[in-house]
Input
Amino acid sequence: MEQVAPYKPVNKIRIVTAASLFDGHDAAINIMRRIIQATGCEVIHLGHDRSVEEVVDCAIQEDAQAIAMTSYQGGHIEYFKYMFDLLKEKGAPHIKIFGGGGGTILPSEIEELHGYGITRIYHPDDGRSLGLQGMINDLIQKCDFPVGTNITNEPDLIGAK
Output
């Protein structure tokens, strides 16, 4: 496989990473977050065993463009769907959701999650065809948009009477 050059983002990109609740398998997300950082993005890493609410609240507070999760323990369909719903409920549907779980997330489940609105669930076949940097480039390209400018008009109100 030929070496893929890192994507160069136009915007400042901030991504929250973690391993899902009851999941101590954090080797994959640790590798991915390091490649994301090396590609020029800021990463807020929450570690393993993180609830949907913890991750969503952090992503909103940090003005992140995306959440990248691993889930190797099962329950991923409910976990990712709840994350999508909670982002929408909290007024942050612009935050993209990415995930992976090796072979534990079946192709039919990936299709279901994509149909629900999850941005991308990576499968081992993606790693074989794209490589690690190729998957990171795909993620970062989908996150390369500005945030914070339309969330509130508070900066416009400073000094206004």
Notes: The longest helix spans residues 124-143.
